[in-house]
TrEMBL record:
<dbReference type="InterPro" id="IPR011008">
    <property type="entry name" value="Dimeric_a/b-barrel"/>
</dbReference>
<dbReference type="GO" id="GO:0003824">
    <property type="term" value="F:catalytic activity"/>
</dbReference>
<dbReference type="InterPro" id="IPR007138">
    <property type="entry name" value="ABM_dom"/>
</dbReference>
<dbReference type="InterPro" id="IPR050744">
    <property type="entry name" value="AI-2_Isomerase_LsrG"/>
</dbReference>
<feature type="domain" description="ABM">
    <location>
        <begin position="5"/>
        <end position="94"/>
    </location>
</feature>
<dbReference type="Pfam" id="PF03992">
    <property type="entry name" value="ABM"/>
</dbReference>
<protein>
    <recommendedName>
        <fullName>ABM domain-containing protein</fullName>
    </recommendedName>
</protein>
Length: 99
C-alpha cells in the first residue's frame, strides 16, 4: 500500500490581492521542495477564474505533510491568509487510482 499523501490546495485571492498572494505562494516553492518528505509541490493558476490558485502537493506520508505545516516558511505564509485570501485554504485529499 502506498502511503504517499497527495493534496490539491485551492487558494483564492481577495480582490486586488492576486499579485501579493502569487508572490507569497512562489516564496513557498523552493523551501518546501527542499523538505525531506516533499515529493512534489507545484503551483497552478486557474485560467478562467481569476484570483484562484491550486497547489498540487505530494509528501512521502501524512507525517511529512504535517511537518510541512510546522515549518517557518509555511507559518510565515499562514499569518497572511486573512489579509490575502477571500476564504480559507480548501484542501482536497487525493488518492491515486491509475498509473
Amino acid at each position: 500500500m502506498n502511503n504517499i499523501y497527495v493534496t490539491m490546495a485551492v487558494l483564492k485571492a481577495k480582490e486586488g490581492k492576486r499579485e501579493k498572494l502569487l508572490e507569497e505562494l512562489l516564496k513557498l516553492i523552493d523551501p518546501t521542495r527542499s523538505e525531506d518528505g516533499c515529493l512534489e509541490y507545484i503551483l497552478f493558476e486557474n485560467k478562467t477564474e481569476n484570483n484562484t490558485f491550486y497547489m498540487r502537493e505530494a509528501f512521502k506520508d501524512l507525517n511529512a505533510f504535517k511537518m510541512h505545516g510546522a515549518t517557518t516558511h509555511f507559518k510565515n505564509f499562514a499569518v497572511q491568509i486573512d489579509e490575502l485570501m477571500s476564504e480559507p485554504i480548501q484542501l482536497i485529499e487525493l488518492a491515486q487510482v491509475s498509473h
